[in-house]
Amino acid sequence: MRIWQLEGQGKEHLRITEQPRPSPGPGQVLVRAEAVSLNYRDKAIVDGSYPARITFPIVPGSDVAGEVVSVGEGLMRFKVGDRVLSVFKQRWLDGVPNPEANASNLGWPLTGVLAEYVLLDEDGVLAYPAYLTAAQASTLPIAAVTAWVALFKHGQLKPQHTVLVQGTGGVSLFGLQLALAHGARVIAISRSEEKIQRIEQLGASAMINSSVMPNWEEAVRLLTSGEGVDQILEVVGGDSLRHSINAAAWGAHIAIIGFLEGKTSSISLPDLMMKSLKIHGFSVGSRKDTEELLSFLEVHRIEPVIDAVYDFVDLPDALDHLDRGPFGKIVVKLR
Q1: Does pTM top 0.85 for this prediction?
Q2: Could you report the per-residue pLDDT of 216-237, keeping only the tens digit for each?
Q3: Minimal CB count within 10 Å: which of 51, 64, 209, 229?
């Protein structure tokens, strides 16, 4: 079978190689990959900005959807022909993550999914809703689960809440779609006027062009009658956190999700304390979180936003697109 292998830092070290097709052992399933979606994490691992020491070579990628083609001895949960997606942290079933859960990330430290066949633990796969295509299902394991956990598990989203999403990447657009489906109001910020128009078509109630208004929290306060927003999906990092604190309502929840523009931040502790803000850092979610998300999607029939689909051999081009900033998700198709 063909796999993508990263042999060192940088896209120039990506190679398609051949490996024997694996066979599942007890408690494992072999999935014929149909689609793999890319995340900012994949870009960071390839270009060397990921905050962990990587030992090469590795197979990158973490989010796959496909068909079960073989099952290990004694496995009862899945059968050949089932259509499944991967769970990002293979051994995080529920509750608070621990070192073992954090060591079970697909794409590093575990072998990734940019391969024609992928061997996974039965606890690390879930059947996805039949209304979704494999490409759509592949977008869910990191981006959609992250948005779900931020809004519903940690943020306790209510229909009367106002949610702020930053940019137009996968997490932000899933956050917008999930919040709207729950009846909440969504304000979106972006530096691109063209993307702002597309966000409006998805149902955002207000848009802010942060290239025109860098202190965008002032616009947020105007749009909320001075109250601020109840939840913020903070994907930018760095100095953006200061703006998010200023844009937050009293008692608001700020989910720390990304570090696109900085891994450190300087904030005002008195502002944080006086407004009784909750700042929550986390990394994706558990198997149970993924199950809850899939149930919500089944009810609301949310269609993931896919910006582009690339052939398996064109992975470097797909990573370039990711680097430019997509509108939604980038998917690599295998069949």
Answers
A1: yes
A2: 999 999 999 999 999 999 998 8
A3: 51
